[in-house]
Amino acid sequence: DSIIASKATDIAKLERTGAHSHIRGLGLDDKLESRPNSQGMVGQLKARKAAGVIVRVIKQGKISGRAIMMAGAPGTGKTAIAMAMSQELGDVPFTSIAASEVFSLEVSKTESLTQAFRRSIGVRIKEESEVIEGEVVEIQIDRSVTGVGPKTGKLTLKTTDMETIYDLGQKMISSLTKEKVMAGDVIQIDKATGRITRLGRSFTRARDFDATGPDVKFVQCPDGELQTRKEVVHLVSLHEIDVINSRQQGFLALFSGDTGEIKSEVRDQINQKISEWCEEGKAEIVPGVLFIDEIHMLDMECFSFLNRALEDTMAPVVIMASNRGMSRIRGTNYQSPHGVPIDFLDRLLIISTQAYSEDDIRQILKIRCDEEEVDMADDALAVLTKVATETSLRYAIHLISTGHLVALKRQATKVDVVDIKRVYSLFLDEGRSVQFLKDYQDEYMYNEIAPGAGEKMVVDAA
Question: How far is CA 354 from CA 19, 193, 319, 359, 367, in A?
């Protein structure tokens, strides 16, 4: 019981390893040249360089309303490059959606696309406030003898240059008690709201206690005057402002997610107000990035809406991904490259991704082994690379964690060739699964494959 209890207390948070959790950036140098293996990115040198150029222009705030398309076969790293772009951008709104989400929401298609657009545009609001910042020298709170009357008190604050005594009211006393402020703490008081923030303990009081917890933060005693003006910057998305100002939902809709339809009049008023703030220097618009995966799932209505939305003054950079070749545009009988109408395709900057080489696949599998904390033998990695080239990279990545479990079962610390062979026989790849269906198709229900029919699957046949 004690071992179980100690294990439970050690785990502070749930750590998950996602498909792209190893990506830290695009892996470019200062001249925007792609490094062969850097920041979790391997290969795709041309595509990464093109993405780096886009990222630099977005950071400078010079483009908005541009659309970029990543076109390539499945498993060539389209989503990985988009994730790397979001890591490189840092403090810029990044929204990622799948095109099929547009049809599954309870609101109209255009409304869901508008909400995705507005989520991807940030507004940096600057606010000046007067604050009192200093180190607490002494807190003196006087209570009445009977314990019924109001509390009174004095607070002594100091900086390196000055020291002042403040009289405390009921509200401030309760705030100080709630924050557990004591002598030696460095605090910040917002004059407008009266909110107290503990910045940490002063270095001069570091020796007051023999033992301190890991959460105790030591800071320098502030210098200069006690009362200063500070500029606070808030970054909010236009969609959040829309929800807060839409009376039907109120700000609680931000937590429930059920925002519903927001009237265009509300959005127009917000746009007008933000334009005024920008002229006055109170706010700044930060065009972000909207990533739409599987863009071929959208229909003609959505594409015509995107045509207009991209021309708007407040439009983010839209990055799309598609793994289709010549296929039918959803809702029509017309075929088009990538399943996207020709007139819309003409507006896009297209980045093409190529199939990975064998060396690239080996590097990616090695990075994934490190990310999933799996120790793999060189022979096993070579076998896994061969499996990836013959089947798919995604299938080979799935075999890493399953192979590790099989190795643990035989009480081995390293994943070896026998473990890879074992999981390869347990889990079928797409090719073997199709072959299995063909061999045993008569035993399945509702089988409609006619004998002698073509082996290739027809995608989006009219």
Answer: 19, 56, 18, 14, 20
Residue 254 in contact with residue 54, Cβ under 8 Å?
A: no
Residue 96: how many CB atoms within 10 A of its CB?
Answer: 16
Distances (CA, A) of 312 to 64, 278, 301, 458: 9, 17, 17, 38
DSSP 212: -
pTM: 0.69
Q: How many CB atoms lie within 10 A of CB 72?
A: 19
- 212 CB-near residues (< 8 Å, 6+ apart): none
Distance CA 420, CA 409 (A): 13
- Whether the CB-CB separation of 376 and 392 falls below 8 Å is answered with no
What type of residue sits at position 87?
Answer: Q
Return the sign of the alpha-carbon dihedral for residues 166, 170, 175, 181.
positive
In our burial notation (b when 16+ CB lie closer than 10 A, e otherwise), range 104-135 reads: eeebeebbbbbbbbbbbbbbebeeeeebbbbb
Residues pairing with 376 in the sheet: 415
Q: What is the pLDDT along the chain (462 residues), one digit of tens a residue?
A: 444 443 333 333 444 566 677 777 888 888 888 888 888 788 888 888 888 888 888 777 666 667 888 888 888 888 888 888 878 877 778 888 888 888 887 788 888 898 889 888 888 888 778 888 888 888 888 877 776 777 888 888 888 888 888 888 888 888 888 888 888 888 888 887 778 888 888 877 777 666 666 777 788 888 888 888 877 788 888 888 888 887 665 555 555 555 677 888 888 888 888 888 888 888 888 878 888 988 989 989 999 999 888 888 778 888 889 888 888 988 888 889 988 998 888 888 888 888 888 888 888 888 888 888 888 888 999 999 999 888 888 888 888 889 889 998 888 888 899 989 999 999 988 888 888 888 887 777 776 655 555 555 555 544
